[in-house]
């Protein structure tokens, strides 16, 4: 084929025709060429993402070399991933990932015509061509991710901790790329939960014991959960809570579900939510698939009124100068968060967000009615600080940068070892 192509242009050359190359090889990795057109595609994508492409010739050439070096590194890793039988990237994973990406891009435009117009400006003839481009691009990204994750799990590569000087230099070099720190607030909160009467608690315990007895006689767990569980979110799923990792649920519940064998059913046990019966369906070292039945003691108006009176008394004590720490130890529900530091407003309950809007440092707010999962509690807030949007400081980003740079150093060291074993020819 190559000979035919050469022969086909030979007569034109003999006639003195002017020939312009339509593409050229700018690097070779192993036996795989990287083309000038592929390098230009990367530059165009960077331009579309808002990056400034220098116009000064020397700066532009330096950027081309840097981008080409990144492409060579990616190709080295992709080739290694393809040769590693433990790295698998299912086609469905690629397709679903690209579906989400294209859906997000399409949502930015008001119509298909506008979307197609922008694709044409970017050099894509159709949405199908755009999709094919990103399918291959995403496949390569997932191959590289899978390779690095697999090698770390096998302890074949490890993060390389940076020095303090490297961290500071990295911070200075990437400041423009770091996200802005969002506006945030800091405050402390005492949460008071209404407690049931002893009589209501005893009724709930008796109902849970009765259900456990039915299970012991062969009762259907899912059916009983649908009929009787007070956890409405899981009851419709037959009590299924899915896979739970350590640290995501209350201590009393976690101790039980990580202490019973798969397939077995626990006895009745108590948590701040009420009385539970749990069944572990499957288990891994750090997580279990579990379902449960919850019987919550009835909370009546008198119980809620007592909790509200307590919250009101806590507010009065704080306003009179009482220690927040001592009141927290006495009244705060230990299963609830108390300290909120530099939290973005969008991460808060709507009730909290509205209550603290416009608050001044030291102001005491409440009682706030907090509703979550059908449970009503009362919050007393001491507002501490509001921080405007701004740039992150080095100290705020230090741990994040250490992790990020440690991973980059790991990849750079591994790529250097690959370059010693694979033919690489840079021709830019």
Structural account:
The chain has helices spanning 2-14, 36-48, 57-83, 91-106, 112-121, 127-153, 164-174, 198-216, 221-228, 232-235, 251-257, 301-319, 324-331, 350-356, 394-419, and strands at residues 25-29, 32-35, 184-192, 240-245, 269-271, 274-283, 287-295, 339-344, 364-372, 375-387, 424-426. The protein is of the alpha+beta class and 428 residues long. The longest helix is centred in the N-terminal third of the chain and has 27 residues, at 57-83. A four-stranded antiparallel beta sheet has the order 8-3-10-9, sandwiched between helices. It has a four-stranded antiparallel beta sheet with strand order 4-7-6-5, sandwiched between helices. The chain has a three-stranded antiparallel beta sheet with strand order 2-1-11. The protein has three domains: 21-174 and 405-426, Triger factor/SurA peptide-binding fold (Orthogonal Bundle), CATH 1.10.4030.10; 184-195 and 301-387, Chitinase A, domain 3 (Roll); 198-295, Chitinase A, domain 3 (Roll), CATH 3.10.50.
């Amino acid at each position: 084929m190559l000979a035919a192509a050469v022969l086909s242009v030979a007569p034109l050359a003999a006639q003195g025709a002017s020939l312009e190359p339509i593409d050229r090889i700018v690097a070779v990795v192993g036996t795989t060429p990287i083309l000038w057109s592929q390098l230009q595609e990367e530059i165009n994508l960077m331009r579309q993402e808002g990056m400034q492409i220098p116009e000064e010739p020397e700066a532009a050439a330096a950027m081309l070399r840097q981008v080409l070096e990144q492409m060579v590194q990616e190709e080295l890793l992709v080739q290694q991933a393809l040769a590693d039988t433990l790295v698998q990237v299912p086609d469905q994973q690629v397709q679903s990932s690209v579906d989400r990406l294209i859906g997000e891009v399409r949502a930015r435009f008001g119509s298909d015509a506008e979307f197609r117009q922008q694709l044409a400006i970017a050099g894509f003839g159709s949405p199908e061509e755009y999709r094919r481009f990103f399918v291959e691009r995403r496949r390569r990204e997932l191959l590289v991710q899978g390779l690095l994750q697999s090698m770390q799990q096998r302890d074949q590569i490890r993060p390389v901790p940076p020095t303090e000087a490297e961290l500071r230099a990295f911070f200075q070099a990437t400041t423009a790329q770091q996200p802005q720190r969002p506006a945030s607030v800091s405050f402390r909160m005492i949460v008071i939960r209404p407690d049931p009467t002893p009589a209501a608690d005893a009724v709930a315990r008796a109902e849970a014991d009765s259900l456990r007895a039915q299970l012991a006689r062969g009762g259907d767990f899912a059916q009983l959960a649908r009929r009787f569980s007070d956890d409405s979110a899981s009851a419709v799923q037959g009590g299924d809570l899915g896979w739970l990792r350590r640290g995501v649920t209350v201590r009393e519940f976690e101790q039980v579900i990580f202490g019973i064998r798969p397939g077995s059913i626990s006895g009745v046990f108590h948590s701040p939510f009420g009385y539970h019966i749990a069944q572990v369906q499957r288990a891994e070292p750090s997580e279990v698939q579990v379902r449960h039945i919850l019987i919550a003691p009835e909370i009546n108006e008198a119980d809620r009124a007592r909790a509200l009176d307590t919250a009101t008394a806590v507010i009065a004590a704080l306003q009179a100068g009482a220690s927040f720490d001592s009141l927290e130890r006495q009244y705060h529900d230990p299963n609830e968060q108390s300290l909120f530091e530099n939290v973005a407003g969008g991460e808060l309950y709507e009730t909290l967000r509205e209550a603290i809007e416009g608050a001044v440092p030291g102001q005491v707010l409440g009682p706030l009615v907090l509703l979550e999962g059908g449970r009503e509690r009362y919050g007393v807030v001491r507002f501490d600080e509001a921080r405007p949007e701004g740039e992150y400081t080095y100290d705020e980003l230090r741990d994040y940068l250490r992790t990020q740079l440690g991973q980059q150093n790991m990849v750079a060291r591994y790529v250097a070892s690959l370059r010693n074993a694979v033919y690489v020819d840079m021709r830019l």
